[in-house]
Automatic annotation (TrEMBL), chains A, B:
Domain SGNH hydrolase-type esterase: from-to ranges: 176-351
Organism name: Sphingobacterium hungaricum
Annotated keywords: Hydrolase
Protein name (record): Hydrolase
Gene3D superfamilies: Galactose-binding domain-like (2.60.120.260), SGNH hydrolase (3.40.50.1110)
Gene Ontology MF term list: hydrolase activity, acting on ester bonds
Amino acid sequence: MDLKKSVSIFILILCLAYSAFAQKKSIYYPIDEKFMIGKIEKTPELFHRIDTSAYAGLPKRVSYLATHAAGLAVGFKSSSTKIRLKWCVKGNGANGNLTPIAQKGFDLYIKHNGKWQFAGAAAPKDTCSDVEIISNMDGSEKEFLLYLPLYDELKNLEVAVDENTTISAIAQPFKRRILVYGSSIVQGASASRPGLNYTSILTRNTGYQFLNLGFSGSAKMEPEVANMVASIPADVYLLDCIPNSSPEEITARTNYLVKTIRQKHPSAPIILMQSLVREHGYFNAKVGTHVSDQNRAAQAEYQRLLQEGITDLYFLPSTNFLGHDHEGTVDGTHPNDIGFERMVKDIQPKILDILGKYKL
Amino acid sequence: MDLKKSVSIFILILCLAYSAFAQKKSIYYPIDEKFMIGKIEKTPELFHRIDTSAYAGLPKRVSYLATHAAGLAVGFKSSSTKIRLKWCVKGNGANGNLTPIAQKGFDLYIKHNGKWQFAGAAAPKDTCSDVEIISNMDGSEKEFLLYLPLYDELKNLEVAVDENTTISAIAQPFKRRILVYGSSIVQGASASRPGLNYTSILTRNTGYQFLNLGFSGSAKMEPEVANMVASIPADVYLLDCIPNSSPEEITARTNYLVKTIRQKHPSAPIILMQSLVREHGYFNAKVGTHVSDQNRAAQAEYQRLLQEGITDLYFLPSTNFLGHDHEGTVDGTHPNDIGFERMVKDIQPKILDILGKYKL
């Protein structure tokens, strides 16, 4: 072998080695405000849902749950062949009805033929984790939508891409603001991953932005919370707070909640949802009666508000939310992915009908 | 008030107090062999799936996973108004893609109008737990089916009922034996609760007993495992082991697996399933190619077996297992409840057609 040939081969080997090495290296970019999708308002902590210091008298549990990143997402584009995530959560205990991916992890969607398509998920390894969520992609520029943990406080997040590429923010992909105030079901229990939360499914399906104000076990329509909900600007208010309120609370508080919203937003449609039927309530008579009483009270309040002259108010009965084979929940109360799929199938056309009337 | 009246009232109060107290008290019954549903064979440890000491040369991981209670259930009847469970699991680490209810917990079904209807779920509190899974029932005698943890070893289990009632075993509710050998997907990842495992859904839907031989990440058709599978008596053999085997392993081992089963069971239908498509494989080219190669190899082996004269052999292509909106998995690989629902919808009629041919 002559010297020239030897040198060429040596350089070729060097190049291959470098390229293999380069492929492995990732550069981490901290996520800041410009990447955020689904934010309800500006908050001192980026991954909180509301700035609780701005609202007087919020119940402690509501303030705490507002630190959970449910419904928030990060949008970016990159031509990286892989995406890594490095993050820390505060680290509250495991929920029996949630996967760690849903509670403290992520899922990733990629814009494909004009639609957001699921591409991968990342499970936490510990309070802090560093996980590759997708790899071996073709290196063309893509738009990504990364959903954040549903049931923990996200303390920080970095997204890593190939060192020869970068990430940049995408334009807001969703229109209008539909504020969804509700319970654990709105917060996302028990989707198998963050993006299968029902507000996120509705957002991807319709292109409208459903903003997540779900407070697990704590959507009780207290006057202070009603004031907070009403003070947040939105085009539509979707109220899914019946499951957490007792029949007495529903009778005492629904009227104030709806009227307070109406006062601040004279023409915004307000949609009141019944509570989904709790599947264990078919055998647990106490639970069955409680849900019936809640839903009767909600319907009565709806009728009373109409009689009092409140307009642009709508009511979604829960009869078909979970289907009829009793398999739509993980624990009798919280929809599993089947339950959320059925719920969306039932309410999405009804909500779109309402939005259509207002040319939103 | 006269003395007689006072004494009567006193006795009445005593009775009410006693009845309230009595309602709270539960008697715990240890679960033994007569209650077990879905057992593949007698095992030294009640909640193991196979007696691994009976099979020479099983891979260590397969022997370990056989200690997980996936697919097993406990059947009993009682007229208790509530059911409590006391249990310990061995306590392996949390799986990122499973709820604690599915991994180390339970769900309960009740026979209602001739069908098994979901009634409640129990999440673990720790390695050992004591949890009420249903309460406030009407006190009529009911048949219960309690599904055991999918991804941990269940060390012991007691079922508690009201002290004035008892529990007794029910007759085997399911007919025939369809042995399902496969991967994590057969073991139940990632159903939201144990009873939504696809073998359990098929069992409830069809009345046929689908026996769970799912070994997470370890269904590789090694000859020793093939010998074990073939030595277990069954009416039908359903093979869902393609996801864990490399294309080379599929080419090298499928033939031996099928022929060994055929040799021991000359006329039993054998059904070979393709691997479900991995949803992250649409973007991860390496994963996409791998699954295509696996499925091509599986189909080639099926054709080769037919050409070699093996009869009563069937093939289920995976094209429609997960539907086509890419939302049927928790992590790209493991079906969520939507994925399992779709998979069952696709394969159940095909399996029933095959069973029909054999008048099983």
